[in-house]
Amino acid sequence: MNEKNQLVSLIVPVYNARDYLDTCVDSLLHQTHADIQVILVDDGSTDGSADLCDAWADKDARVMVIHRANSGVSAARNAGLDAADGDWLEFVDADDWLEEETVEELLELVHDRHAQMAIFNYRSVPADATPSAVHAQEPDYRIPSGVLSRKDALDCILAYSGVKGYVWNKFFSRALIERENLRFDSRISMCEDLLFDVEYASLSAVTVSTDRCLYNYRNNPNSTSHKVDLESVATCLEAHEHMMAIVPKESRSSVLASYAILAEELLLRTYAINDPSHRDEYRKILCKYWWHALKRLHSPRYWIRILGGTFCPSLFYPIWNRVKGKIS
Fold first, then answer.
1. Coil, strand, or helix at residue 169?
2. 325 Rama class: left (phi>0) / alpha (psi -120 to 50) / beta
3. Is the pTM here over 0.90, yes or no?
């Protein structure tokens, strides 16, 4: 089927995003590829976002609204997947926005290469940014462009910087998702998007990437992605255990590197806030997989942290935190 005739579903979990939702939805409805389905999943908002969702549905027949009790972003995305009719899927966070040519360019990219997945670049913008003010801003990173092997795709997704495991800078085939019955694990509240990406990329026959900056990520300190608690951390560790069981053998080292880097960040935090809870657990993971992290990291700063945390954390972290003056 020609890409011009294909429907794309844009799934937006919405939770108390009143200040940003209009900018987000406006960017979706003004895509140069007009054959879209916008699915706004109101996850029990209490700030008036639910009414904004309904107002958008009244304005444009391409907008569908799902109201549900608050159940978390994974359950909201799954509700969007269940309702989606599109041939292709894009997830968008309610405080972010797309460039107007995003859908058109991604459709062209996957059709030209007969791909099942596309990975694309993004830029981080301040919480109070507007589309007109940041249009020419450079992306955060440079990422590779072209056809990626399965190993290279997983390496990009699991890397400490660059593409990362965000779900919103990926383009997915609904046929593959439905064939494999892929859904977000609602029991995982941290790294849930990384787990979904890894599961999908492990199944994608052809994955393509582009350095074109097509997504604007609002760096909002009040968003749920910035709120971390011990229960969420535990589910992120669980997500890594699951990833190790599903990735091809050649990609296992990348998962172990991600696991070690996460454990080191958590170990650092236990010293920074003087809370020994789970300290032994985090160090055990780091000591087991530290070498995989060193192979992946290129910054001397993080080499020092990995080595210090692995071999002498009780001496290293107090000095590190005193020098830095904050959690790094």
1. coil
2. left
3. yes
